[in-house]
Each structure stands twice: as C-alpha cells, then as structure tokens.
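Practice problem: predict the structure.
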Amino acid sequence: MTIKTVALIGAGNMGSRMARCIKRAGFDLTVCDQDLTVLEAFKKEGASVTHDPRDCALADAIIVLVANDEQIVSVTCGTTGFIEAIPPERQPLVCMMSTTLPSTLKQIAAQLKNTRAHLIDAPVSGGLVKAEQGTLTIMMSGDEQDLNRAEPLMRSMGTEIFRCGALGAAEVIKVINNMLGIANIYLAAEAFELAAKYGVNIEQIAPILEVSSGRNFMSLDGAMTRQHYQAWARSQEAFFSLVNIVSKDLHLAKTLADEAKLELPLLNDLSRNVDATDQTVMKRWMLAAGQKIT
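Answer:
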C-alpha cells in the first residue's frame, strides 16, 4: 500500500526539520508533539497537529522520533499510545526512527501483533544541518516488503539509505555509529581549539584531515563543521538538549556491551566524560562555530 499520509511523533530539533522535508515532498503530514509552540508553527505551515499520539493511528506511516526509550514506550504502548487506537482494517507502517535498543523494538512488535500494523527501525545520522537539507543517512531494517514500502518516504529525508537486515539491526549499527561520532565531535572541538591557539583555523585543517589518518565526520567540510557546532551550541537549551541525547546514546551502547558481556573501557570513559559535560564544553563548541565568547 502506497504511503500518502504520514504522522510524525516528536518534532524536536531533528524531528521538526525532518517533518518539513516530508511535507515538502508532498505527503499529507500530521505532527504530534507536546510543545504547543511547535504545534502552532506547523499549523501555520499547513500541517495537521495534535498532542495525542492516538490521533496518529489512522496515518499510512507513523514515524516515532522521541528522545528516549521511556518516551518510545509511552507513545506506542502507553495509556495514550497509538497502538490501541489502530483500527482493525488499517495496516500502518510504524517507522522507529528514534535511537533505541533491539529489546525495545521487540516489546513494541509484541504489542503490534494484535493489529495489522508493520514495524521497521530506521534511525538516522547526519545532524541538524543534513536534517534541514533532507540529506540524512538512514539505516533501515525489517521485512523487505515493508522496507520497499518505506523507501519513498525515507527518500524525502535522506540521500544515503541502507538496508541492514532483520528488525533491530539498524539500531545496533546506529548505536555503534554514535559511539564513534560522539567521540569525534568532542575530541574534534578540543583539536580545533588547540589548532586555533597556534593560528590554524578549521578551514585550513579540515581538508588535510580529510585525506589523512585524522579523517572523521568533522573533517568533511570546514564550513559545514562550523555550521554543525553553531547549531549545537546556539543556546544553552539546544546544547544541553543535545548532550542529553548523546549521553543517552552512549548508555545504550553500554547496555548492548553489557548484554554481550563485553568490557569496553574507552566507551565507558567517553560516557563518563559526556555525562560530565559543562559550560566549558559549550564555550569550546561556540569557538569552533566561530562565535565570540564574552
């Protein structure tokens, strides 16, 4: 069944940008969020809005893009979750685009067994800039027919679409990606601050790193790197909101390691460092963005 109507639950920093890409692509969009300011903005842009996840149950595709596992369970299986509101004749495609654990997906899949709905996981990578551009990397896993059905919707938000296998595989890959990406973001900001002390700027160092052993997400394009840090550190609220998310992602990685009975000391050290993030780190990111610190 072709996807024409889309409900997106969780229009935060990433979700709001992805929702606008979906709308620009011509899908009939409903945005569900608890922030009335967000809902008012989307209403003015012509989208349907609601604060109740149950109102999303009639959509052809339901995207879940909330911050953590507690919220995921709440909007899907909770007392106001949309699963219980799915009519018997409907076959929505539930797209888990939040970063979560395979065990959480299994919990949701078990609840969906009493419906005709289908579930895939499709976490994303690329940050706010690529979310704005609709050029995200999207990792999908689940039944092949469901992935085929989801592909046009995913193409409205991303340009690099990967099929990763059985349900949950994409989430494992996303968590591993975030382990490496978060380490790069934090360490690159320190490296750029050190470089600046010796008169070397990001635009000079990035192209050299990109063709050397220091290559990473933050070396791809110097100007884009500044844009990333500017978006992440544009306000205290935005900065600490991101820190909470990346801290959560590292704890997911630690949970996967614990379940696999692996000891990963560098992951543990990185997680402790991120958990201790303070204003000093925000100022470092502001410097990397080219902002003046007063």
